Amino acid sequence: MTQVLVTGGAGFIGAHLVQALLARGATVRVLDNFVAGTTANLALATGRSLEEVHRALAAGTGPARLGERCQVWAADIRDPAATAAACAGVDVIFHQAALRSVPRSLLDPTGTHEVNATGTLALLEAARAAGVRRLVFASSSSVYGDTEVPQHEGQIPKPKSPYAASKLAAEGYCQVYSRSFGLSAVALRYFNVFGPWQDPASEYAAVIPKFIRLTMRGESLPVHGDGRQSRDFTFVDNVVEANLLAAEADAAGAVVNVGAGDRHTLLDLIELVGKILGRTPQIVHEPARAGDMRHTHADVSLAGRLLGYVPPVDFATGLRRTIEAMTGTEAVADRG
Questions:
Q1: Better-predicted residue by pLDDT, 170 or 1
Q2: Handedness of CA 217, 220, 224, 229 (dihedral sign)
Q3: Among 163, 173, 177, 309, the one annotated catalytic
């Protein structure tokens, strides 16, 4: 990989990818409309100050430059001109741009489809025209719905939300472009990704940063349902590793799980957050949410065979690192 494009590169996962790619010596382009992505994430990813990022983005027309090896297009993946320009001369695309969140998709199914499915199709067209070698697509474990665990790629998907359906549709387009147009694409089904730089304050915040923040403030934690629903919480470094492997693996047209290969209930999560922070979180049970899956648990054996993927960071270690990043100090040691 020499020249790469990260769509959604100012988002949580995208920014971690940008940081890893720059560390490997790649020339990185970022395409982000900054609806969900932030300039703060770009500053962290590139090692620049927030002021430098703002100055670069405000400098004028065309891509902003953040050093010699990073350019940023402040544009939407559905903008044909910007997408074509960002794809020109690119070897690999890491497609992270999306409207995430099951609850948001229930409120706005059309908007979710337009970004996640139609936007992916537009990007595939631009990538095909530019002669891109490989596109790695960020899909989601939500496509499985309430199937038996551990979930594996041979199961028939049963999406429960417009978000899940939009990701499944985009997977299909990636496979079609691999089979019919010669654009090598790999779809990675992410399982409940968490880690530093994840926004705890968003209306649609993921559960881990939200629970950490509320526990630190001494506020009660809203748990939808009985709290025994379980998730394969996957630290962001694992997802970055899987993307880097997928960029080079002999896996054109494949759909592959990316998880930690384990699962924990929300009650388990709350207990461990409290243990690390040395506090006793208070729980308020609320009605279960429409569209939510009961359990997620990734069978990562195919990822191991096709990509050589072995999750490098376990759940407890990842949670401790996330809390350290959010508190700005070393987390409280395991109180055993």
A1: 170
A2: positive
A3: 163
* Total residue count of the chain as it appears in this document: 336
Q: Is the peptide bond before 109 cis (omega within 30 degrees of 0)?
A: no
Query: Burial letters for 154-165: b for 16+ Cβ neighbours within 10 Å, e otherwise?
Result: eeebebbbbbbb
Amino acid residing at 275: K
Confidence of residue 319 (pLDDT cuts 50, 70, 90): very high
Torsion, Cα 128 41 23 321, to 10 degrees, reads: -120
On whether the CB atoms of residues 159 and 147 are closer than 8 A, the answer is: no
Specify the DSSP element, H or E, that contains 190. strand 184-190
Q: The tokens 């703002």 sit on which residue?
A: 54
| The one-letter amino acid at 288 | A
Per-residue model confidence as pLDDT tens digits over 250-261:
999 999 999 999
d(CA 207, CA 222): 10
Q: Sort strands 264-265 and 230-231 into parallel, antiparallel or unpaired.
A: antiparallel
Nearest to 246 by CA among 313, 296, 180, 178: 178
CB neighbours of residue 204 within 10 Å: 14
For residue 163, indicate whether it is catalytic: yes
Measured CA to CA, the distance from residue 16 to residue 78 in angstroms comes to 23
Cite the DSSP H helix spans in 10-161: 12-23, 39-46, 50-57, 80-87, 102-107, 109-113, 119-130
Domains and CATH numbers, the chain: 3-194+235-261+297-313 (3.40.50.720)
Whether 82 has a pLDDT exceeding 80, the answer reads: yes
